[in-house]
Amino acid sequence: MKIAVVCANGKAGKRIVKEAVGRGLDVTAVVREENHSAAPKVIQKDLFDLTSHDLTGFDVVIDAFGAWTEETLPLHSTSLGHLCDVLSGTDTRLLVVGGAGSLYVNPEHTVQVADGPDFPDIFKPLAAAMAKALEELRKRRDVKWTYISPAGDFQAEGERTGQYILGGEELTLNDRGESVISYADYAIAMVDEAVDGGHIQQRISVVQK
Which residues form the NAD(P)-binding domain (predicted)? Predict the structure, then answer.
């Protein structure tokens, strides 16, 4: 299986590359500058300069793009839109590192995590930008996409337990009532989806077991 990880130098990207390489998959890092991930192959190119030719032959493209500053938040939509355009009409699957703020907290799917009174104001612009990108992604019927939301507490330095619970559109809690997952365990879930998953044009979520 051939996998390309876009923005492989980021925290999530590096973890996903490491997990995929560790399983013996054929992994290519897509990076703007020098490759700092474990991927043995590299496409050194800005995400917005990627063409269909660049991504031809990959079974899965994993989008690990992230933007955090106010002026760059709209790039969540434009970057994802560009990748969709590049992969439109192909059999290459697009897996997206998503956010937790857009997960629903009621069965009617009318209230999201980011709507809650305890959701930090500082993260609301980011959650809104990522939710907008997801809503735009849902309209793409020409791309084999899967959007994977982490748990509410997404821990960059958390341990790799090797176990996770697969959820859907709603915020899922583990047996301890927690919504938490490490980047390492999230990477396991992402690569599992790449290898075995069939959640085409769906949003799924993961939480540490």
Answer: 8-193
Under 8 Å CB-to-CB from 63, ≥6 apart: which residues?
Answer: 6, 7, 79, 80, 83, 94, 95, 96, 97
- List Cβ neighbours of 157 (8 Å cut-off, separation of 6 or more): 182, 183
Of 137, 155, 154, the closest CA to residue 145 belongs to 137
CA distance 163 to 206: 10
Q: What is the pLDDT of residue 2?
A: 98
The CB density around residue 147, as the number of other CB atoms within 10 Å, is 25
* Residue 48, domain extent: 2-208
Is residue 145 within 8 A of residue 118, CB to CB? The reply is no
The pLDDT of residue 197 is: 84
Look at residue 76 in the predicted model and tell me its pLDDT: 97
Contact 186, 155 (CB under 8 A): no
**Could you give the number of structural domains in the chain?**
1
**pLDDT below 50 — which residues of the chain?**
none
pLDDT for 147? 98
The pair phi, psi for residue 5, each rounded to 5°, is: -110, 110
